[in-house]
Please model this.
Amino acid sequence: MRPWWPVGLTRMSAPLVVWALHFVAVYSLQGLACARDLWRAPVAGLETTTWVLWLLTALALACIGAFGHTAWRQWQRTRAQADGRTGTARLRFLTALSALVALLAAIGVAFTALPVALLPTCA
Model:
């Protein structure tokens, strides 16, 4: 079974792109909320901006998790059929690297979302 997305630089950098987009979205929306009083009405104890930012964080983590899970499954498949050839070793390295980059991006998204969780919107 062929992977739905070929291994390469694009696949390895996709989680980092999601992390970067999440970073820009979180801090842009946070700045707009403070500058223009956008989405400041409280809903269930939190401001609407906070709920939107948590939704974006969950979406980013789901995308990164999908990339990481796909890389992990492909790494397990290549590990099972390892035959010592250079092509297989290269594929195993790239898939392992893709999974680790996804893990790094997930940690980055979590650290980007931490100030949103711990600080008020406009302190």
About this structure: The chain has a mean pLDDT of 79. The first strand starts at residue 42 and ends at 43. The CA atoms of residues 2 and 74 lie 9 Å apart.
